[in-house]
Every structure is written in structure tokens, then in C-alpha cells.
């Protein structure tokens, strides 16, 4: 429909109906208005997949490689493919409004949601985000760019004030939002934090002034969940929809503000028109154009496997004998040790609202054992334990007491203890955000746990609230778990406190029963039940791993972080691998010179052992098919052709910007654009692995570069490269603009464009690359305009920010 037709529908609504539309009907939906043909609009997180409206393993979702992994492809085509798959998933789940992508930047490597964002560079983020939005919306699903703006830290994220100067805001942090608006994004999410003293949900200069008026955004500006704190101020600032509902600061208060003349009804009309436009675009309004007939394809898992493998980055690949250790030829080995805490328990995703429940997660141990084949003996050794919580109960050992079938019995009980409803679950981690039967005062979980080994067993409950726990014939225990003082509200979900109990048991079964109280005014519950069986001591685990490495032809050590280390709701405190993983890698490398290290993490970690091991593969959080993708990458079935979208420091102290914590309520972006690779260059600090780095499985020679300025002011380049290795491979040609000031140490090179090519051994390929003139422009604060400075520009073709290959010059006329 056009806006005139939408305006006719708008005219049929009363003020009360209009205002009611602008606050969520519940946590994950907006209300229907049948009188005008508007259906209920469902909303879903998130960047790693489309969870839907419940956190329930019975409604699984595809789990994608994390967004930083998608950016590591440096391939808009691959990212668009991922976006299209997410759009198809959303359609299958009846979701119209998808809360992704997260286009905040990697300002500090300690940022808690680093894994959920794309890159430290605005241009790379912009290109990748635009491709993702295009992919999602090609399925008729609204994509939501977030978090607008200055939301690069998690500490005190709901209250801190980001102080950003005009040039930095325009030239760095607004660039990705500009790109997604140009790509046609149908929604943008306002962040929790303030910018320059004004909370984002009330920030009229940034929402109405820049986003809507300057950039021409015609979609819906939605609040982050619980971010809106006012009625008139936020409405007048340009915010369109408040989430979640039904409670919130708008509702009757907003209608009253209109009545008192504090908010013009035309302001309300604009918001409703934008919402109707989104409903029309997503097919949730009668009379809308038919949506494209899309559904999740049968080969979705294979596509995720392929994307994840291509995103992986070969950080190091030295000779271990006559040739590089990678790719590993299964026919060249007879015994392989697969070591590390992440080998059997892959961290497939980070923590927080991006979490989805996948149909399965393939472990590297399973996939590598399959890929190496029956002729290779595989020995597995965990080495160290890094999980803070005890393991969750699983259907393999937990049975429903009422039926004897696999699972856990969940009863919803009223204040008298009567059962209001019951269900069987296949996980012992529960998240209920509303949707409980009316009158629910408690949630009771019962299960019979199989005990295989005699000895001292540990059981625990995790979460927030008041619990009653009964283990076997033992007396009931009353447990209260409280959040850490000052903790983010998401702590109960992503980093819950835990209470453990030790019980001496013989083989057999033991009945476990737990009841958590539910506040009738806040029908939310997040808790877990856990069990740890007797096992080896820490030193025994460690020595067994070293012994396995010593006896093997090749040792593969799979280390990494967890979803409690990298998560929404808090920032990291350091860049160290948790537990004794660094010691484990060093000991294994000493025991076996043919050691391959796979790092399963979403954000940089220190790697003090990196020079001790001939091969290091960075696997990211690779999603549900991650084990298969790691096996494909290690064996060369797929070239791990990723390039780093962020700089990896040698130590945390080397990072140009490290701190994420507000000082006196403020985070001052005093570094301007000098963070990431530009900050390293300005400080003359050599990183462990630079932005753009990635070896792949072949080598490249750069032979020639040409450049010309078009009549529109764009710069068109052609870069000729030759594959000088023995394998077909993909090369990413990165174009950097040399510093524009006379003192280039104060204004280091910056990425302005990139392109890629696929070439066979000894094949020559020419890569065409265009630098849009807007990328070359700088913000003139005094005039309030974008300007291209006249003069000669030097352009650099490179394999990374620190690996320059060719230079050329162009003459810019200026504007």
C-alpha cells in the first residue's frame, strides 16, 4: 500500500487505539486491530538466529555463526545468504519483526557483546550490515539495526552517558546506521544509554534530527526493552514504539499528554503510520502485497556449516616438517589426540538475548572423529574444566517420574499447591518470560536421575529467587539466590548464581524436586537444575591430556571461552582464556611439536603460547554445525578463508581503548576514531594479529593497481593478483586510504573499500573495487556538511592493515 491508503486506515482509529498500538501487547508482540485488518505482529531476537517468542527447546531455531564470524568472511554475498536464511526462519515462525543486526563497533576488546557485533571498522561493518538487512528483508521480514547509538559497553549500560564529539559520531559510529538506512532497514532500535547528556529514547537531535530527517529513515524507531522512561519527552523525540508491554510509560500517560497539548496528535499519527507501513511491508496488514514464498530450505544446516567454515581464520600455519601443518591430511596420521574443554562441549554461541535453542550442536570431537575416519585412532582428553556451573541434566539420565519417559516433569502450581498445568521438558535450564498459566505461584520440576557411579555427587540449583530443593530422601532445603549488588537485570539469565549440595550416592536412581516461587506481578522465572558426577581431580585431567598428546602423531587442542565469559549484561574484565587453558596449550605443544590449536571464542583473547604452536585456527562461535565446520576447515574440505574484522592484541594492555566502565556516569570517547587498528598504528604498537589478517591455504602476489576518479567523485580501482600457491583459494583485497594530514602518524590509514576473488594455482585475477565518494568525505563541524578535501590521495592495496602490497594516487577535486 502507499502512504495515502495507510493514512485512510489511520483515520479510522481513535486516539486511544492509536496510543495502544504504540506499546507492546506483551513481551514479544504488538496488538491486532481487526477493524482495519491489522494482525498481531510478532517480534523476535536476534543476531544468532530467530528464537521466536519462547525460550523452549521444543521450538528449536537454526543457530548461526556469531555476527563477528559473518563479518570475518569479508563477503557481502555470504552475509546476505545468512540474512536470507534468518528471514526464512522468521517467516516459518510467524515472526514479522527481527531484532538484528547489532551494528555497534568493537571499541574495546573487553566489550561484553563484542561477539554480537561485526567489526571495529565502520566501513566493514556498514557493508556487512547492509547485506544482512537486505537478506532478511528479502523474505518480507523487518530487520532492526541496533543499538542506536554509542552502545559499545555493557557496564551500567542503562544509565551511562556516552560523550562523543560531532566528527567521531558522524564519521565512525553513524556510518553503519547510515548504511542500513540506505539498504532500506524497516526498523532501528534506540539504546539504553545516553549520548551527550540525553537518554537515547528522548534524544530528539539523534532520532528525529539525524536518523529521520537527515538520513531519511521511514521505518519504526523502537525502544530497547524497558529503555523508555518518559511519555511526552520520548514521544516528541521521535521514538515510535515502546517495548515490552502491556505496562510502560506511554499508554494512558501518552494519551493524557496529547490531551494536555504536550504531544501533538500529528506526532502520534506519524508513529502509527510508520507502524502500519512496517505491517504492510511484512504482510501483517490486509491488502498488503503478497510476500515472497520463502521457507527454511532443506539444506539450511549444510549452508550454516559452509558459512561457518569459510568464516574461520588461519592465524598461523608454519611448517611442521617439509610443509605447513594445515590442512591436515587424514591419510598422513594414524593417531590423533583431541584435547581441551571445548572439544566435546563446543561454545556455539554467546550469552544473553541473542541466545537460541538449536536442534543440535555438533561437537568438534564428534565431527573430527568422523572426518579422520576409522583408520585413525582418536583419543580424547578434556585437560581442564572451564564451566562455572555444574552440567545440566539431560534426557540421557533424567526421566519423568509420572511416565518413566526421558525428560523432566514441570508443574505450574497455585498458592495451595494445586497443579494448574503440566509439561515435559528435555532440558533442565528454564526461561519463562510471561506465558505462565493464570494464578501461577510456583514452578515445580521433578525428575529421576540415573546414578552410574558410586561416590560423592553434586547437585545444584541456579537462577534468581526463592527455591525449595529436595534430593532423594533428604530433608527439603530452602534456598534464596540473589543478584550481585548492582548487577545488570540479565544476570539471572546469563550468569546466574548457583547453590550446590553434595550427596553420597550408590548406583541407581535419585528423585530430584525443585520449586521456584513466582511473583504474580512479574510472571518471569529463569532457573536451572544441575548434576555433577564423581570424576578425576584437576591434575589428573591435565596430565592425561599431556600424555595423550605425547603419544599422538598430531595433537589438536580446542580451547576457548564460554557463554558466561562473553555475554550481554556485563563486560569482560580481561582477555585471558578461563581456567588453565594457556598452561594446557603450552604443555601440549611441548609434548608434541605437531600441535594445532583451535580457538573457540567470539572476541579476542591473549595467546601467550602462539609462537609455540605451528598452527592456530580461529573458529569463532560457529553455531550448531560448528564441529563439522571446524573439521572441514582443519582438513581443507573448505578453505577457512576468513580475515580478522578486529585487531587481536598481544596483551590486553596493548589495546588503544580497553576500559568499558563509566567514570562518574560517563564514557568519554576521547580517542575519537583512533581505536582498533588506527589506534595501534598511531601508538606504533604491533598487535599479535592485525585487522584484516588471515592466511587461508594458499599464497598471493599483488602485481598491479590502477585507480581513476569518476564524474560522480567515486574512485574505481582494479587490483591484479596472482595465486602463487598450490591450492585454489579466495583473496580479500583491502583498500586503505593513507593519512590525509601531513603528519600521517596522527591520522593513520583507514579502510575505505574491499573486494575479493577466487583463483586457481598460478591463475591471475583482477579485482574491481569502487570507493564511494561518501566514504572519502569528512564531516565539517563548522559548516555542518560533508566535504571531500581537494588534493592528491594515496591509496594502499593490502592483505591486512599491517601488510601493505601496492600503492597508487588519485587527484580529488574536493567539494
Q: Would you kindly provide a written description of the structure presented here, covering whatever features stand out?
A:
The model has no long low-confidence stretch (mean pLDDT 96). α2 crosses α10 and α14 crosses α18. Helix content is 23%, strand content 27%. The protein is an alpha/beta fold and 815 residues long. Among the domains are: 199 residues, Rossmann fold, CATH 3.40.50; 117 residues, Jelly Rolls; 113 residues, Immunoglobulin-like. The radius of gyration is 27 Å and the shape is globular. β35 and β36 form a beta hairpin. The longest helix is centred in the N-terminal third of the chain and has 17 residues. The strands form eight sheets. Strands 13, 14, 15, 17, 19, 20 and 22 form a seven-stranded antiparallel sheet that branches. The chain has a six-stranded mixed sheet with strand order 1-2-3-4-6-9. The chain has 20 helices and 36 strands.
Observed structural traits:
seven-stranded antiparallel sheet, Rossmann fold, Jelly Rolls, 20 helices, about 800 residues
The CATH homologous superfamily of one domain: Glycoside hydrolase family 3 C-terminal domain
Structural class: alpha/beta
Count of discrete alpha- or pi-helical segments spanning 4 or more residues: 20
Biggest sheet architecture:
7 strands, antiparallel
Mean pLDDT across all amino acids? 96
List the helices and strands and how they pair.
Elements: H1 3-11, H2 15-21, E1 29-30, E2 41-45, H3 67-72, H4 76-92, E3 97-99, H5 122-137, E4 142-148, E5 161-163, H6 166-173, H7 175-182, E6 187-190, E7 194-195, E8 198-199, H8 204-214, E9 220-223, H9 232-237, H10 251-259, H11 265-281, H12 300-311, E10 313-317, E11 335-339, H13 341-344, H14 364-372, E12 377-381, E13 398-399, E14 408-413, E15 419-425, E16 429-433, E17 442-451, E18 455-463, E19 465-471, E20 477-481, H15 491-494, E21 498-505, E22 508-517, E23 524-532, H16 538-550, E24 554-560, H17 581-591, E25 595-600, E26 615-618, H18 626-635, E27 666-668, H19 676-683, E28 700-709, E29 715-723, E30 729-737, E31 750-759, E32 764-771, H20 773-776, E33 778-780, E34 785-787, E35 791-800, E36 803-812
Parallel strand pairs: 2-3, 3-4, 4-6, 5-7, 5-27, 6-9, 11-12, 11-24, 24-25, 25-26
Antiparallel strand pairs: 1-2, 7-8, 10-26, 13-17, 14-15, 14-17, 16-23, 17-22, 18-21, 18-23, 19-20, 19-22, 28-29, 29-32, 30-31, 30-35, 33-34, 35-36
Amino acid at each position: 500500500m502507499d502512504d495515502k491508503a495507510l493514512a485512510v486506515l489511520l483515520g479510522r482509529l481513535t486516539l486511544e487505539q492509536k496510543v495502544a498500538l504504540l506499546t507492546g501487547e506483551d513481551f514479544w508482540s504488538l496488538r491486532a486491530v481487526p477493524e482495519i485488518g491489522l494482525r498481531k505482529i510478532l517480534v523476535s531476537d536476534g543476531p544468532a538466529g530467530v528464537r521466536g517468542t519462547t525460550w523452549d527447546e521444543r521450538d528449536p531455531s537454526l543457530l548461526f555463526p556469531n555476527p563477528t564470524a559473518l563479518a570475518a568472511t569479508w563477503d557481502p554475498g555470504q552475509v546476505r545468504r545468512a540474512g536470507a536464511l534468518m528471514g526464512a526462519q522468521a517467516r516459518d515462525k510467524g515472526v514479522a519483526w527481527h531484532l538484528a543486526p547489532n551494528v555497534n563497533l568493537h571499541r574495546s576488546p573487553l566489550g561484553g557483546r563484542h561477539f554480537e557485533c561485526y567489526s571495529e571498522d565502520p566501513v566493514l561493518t556498514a557493508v556487512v550490515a547492509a547485506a544482512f538487512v537486505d537478506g532478511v528483508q528479502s523474505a518480507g521480514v523487518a530487520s532492526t539495526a541496533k543499538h542506536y547509538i554509542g552502545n559499545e559497553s555493557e557496564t551500567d549500560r542503562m544509565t551511562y552517558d556516552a560523550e562523543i564529539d560531532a566528527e567521531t559520531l558522524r564519521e565512525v559510529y553513524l556510518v553503519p546506521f547510515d548504511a542500513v538506512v540506505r539498504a532500506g532497514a524497516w526498523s532501528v532500535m534506540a539504546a539504553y544509554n545516553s549520548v551527550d547528556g540525553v537518554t537515547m529514547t528522548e534524544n530528539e537531535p539523534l532520532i528525529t534530527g539525524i536518523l529521520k530527517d537527515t538520513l531519511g529513515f521511514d521505518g519504526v524507531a523502537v525502544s530497547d526493552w524497558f529503555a523508555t522512561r518518559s511519555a511526552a519527552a520520548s514521544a516528541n523525540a521521535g521514538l515510535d514504539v515502546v517495548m515490552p508491554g502491556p505496562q510502560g510509560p506511554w499508554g494512558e500517560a501518552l494519551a493524557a499528554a496529547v490531551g494536555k497539548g504536550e504531544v501533538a496528535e500529528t506526532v502520534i499519527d506519524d508513529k502509527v503510520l510508520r507502524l502500519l507501513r512496517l505491517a504492510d511491508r511484512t504482510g501483517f496488514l490486509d491488502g498488503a502485497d503478497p510476500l515472497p514464498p520463502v521457507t527454511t530450505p532443506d539444506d539450511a544446516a549444510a549452508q550454516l556449516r559452509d558459512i561457518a567454515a569459510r568464516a574461520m581464520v588461519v592465524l598461523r600455519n608454519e611448517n611442521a616438517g617439509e610443509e605447513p601443518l594445515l590442512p591436515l591430511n587424514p591419510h598422513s596420521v594414524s593417531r590423533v589426540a583431541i584435547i581441551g574443554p571445548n572439544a566435546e562441549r563446543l561454545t556455539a554461541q554467546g550469552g544473553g538475548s541473542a541466545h537460541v535453542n538449536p536442534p543440535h550442536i555438533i561437537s568438534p570431537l564428534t565431527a573430527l572423529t568422523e572426518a579422520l575416519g576409522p583408520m585413525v585412532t582418536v583419543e580424547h582428553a578434556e585437560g581442564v574444566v572451564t564451566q562455572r556451573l555444574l552440567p545440566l541434566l539431560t534426557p540421557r539420565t533424567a526421566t519423568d517420574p509420572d511416565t518413566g519417559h526421558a525428560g523432566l516433569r514441570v508443574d505450574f502450581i497455585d498458592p495451595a499447591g494445586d497443579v494448574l498445568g503440566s509439561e515435559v521438558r528435555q532440558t533442565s535450564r528454564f526461561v519463562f518470560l510471561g506465558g505462565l498459566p493464570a494464578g501461577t505461584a510456583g514452578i515445580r520440576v521433578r525428575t529421576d536421575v540415573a546414578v552410574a557411579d558410586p561416590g560423592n555427587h553434586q547437585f545444584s540449583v541456579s537462577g534468581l529467587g526463592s527455591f525449595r530443593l529436595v534430593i532423594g530422601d533428604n530433608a527439603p532445603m530452602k534456598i534464596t539466590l540473589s543478584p550481585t549488588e548492582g548487577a545488570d537485570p540479565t544476570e539471572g539469565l546469563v550468569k546466574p548464581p548457583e547453590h550446590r549440595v553434595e550427596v553420597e550416592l550408590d548406583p541407581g536412581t535419585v528423585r530430584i524436586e525443585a520449586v521456584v516461587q513466582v511473583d504474580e506481578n512479574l510472571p518471569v522465572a529463569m532457573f536451572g537444575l544441575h548434576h555433577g558426577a564423581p570424576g578425576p581431580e584437576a591434575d589428573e585431567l591435565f596430565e592425561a591430556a599431556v600424555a595423550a598428546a605425547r603419544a599422538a602423531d598430531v595433537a589438536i587442542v580446542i580451547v576457548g571461552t564460554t557463554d558466561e565469559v562473553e555475554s550481554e549484561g556485563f563486560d569482560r574484565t580481561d582477555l585471558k582464556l578461563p581456567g588453565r587453558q594457556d598452561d594446557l596449550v603450552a604443555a601440549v605443544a611441548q609434548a608434541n611439536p605437531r600441535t594445532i590449536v583451535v580457538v573457540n571464542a567470539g572476541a579476542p583473547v591473549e595467546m601467550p603460547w602462539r609462537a609455540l604452536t605451528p598452527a592456530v585456527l580461529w573458529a569463532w562461535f560457529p553455531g550448531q554445525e560448528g564441529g563439522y565446520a571446524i573439521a572441514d576447515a582443519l582438513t581443507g574440505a573448505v578453505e577457512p578463508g576468513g580475515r580478522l574484522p578486529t585487531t587481536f592484541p598481544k596483551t590486553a594492555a596493548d589495546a588503544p581503548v580497553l576500559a568499558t566502565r563509566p567514570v562518574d556516569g560517563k564514557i568519554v570517547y576521547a580517542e575519537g576514531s583512533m581505536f582498533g587498528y588506527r589506534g595501534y598504528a598511531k601508538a606504533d604498537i604491533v598487535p599479535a594479529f592485525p585487522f584484516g589478517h588471515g592466511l587461508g591455504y594458499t599464497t598471493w602476489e599483488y602485481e598491479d593497481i590502477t585507480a581513476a576518479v569518476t564524474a560522480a567523485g567515486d574512485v574505481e580501482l582494479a587490483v591484479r593478483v596472482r595465486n602463487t600457491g598450490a591450492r585454489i583459494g579466495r583473496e580479500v583485497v583491502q583498500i586503505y586510504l593513507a593519512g590525509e594530514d601531513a603528519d600521517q602518524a596522527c591520522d593513520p590509514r583507514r579502510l575505505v573499500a574491499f573486494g575479493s576473488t577466487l583463483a586457481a594455482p598460478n591463475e591471475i585475477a583482477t579485482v574491481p573495487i569502487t570507493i564511494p565518494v561518501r566514504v572519502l568525505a569528512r564531516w565539517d563541524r563548522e559548516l555542518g556538511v560533508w566535504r571531500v578535501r581537494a588534493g592528491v590521495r594515496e591509496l594502499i592495496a593490502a592483505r591486512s592493515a599491517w601488510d601493505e602490497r601496492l600503492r597508487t594516487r588519485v587527484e580529488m577535486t574536493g567539494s
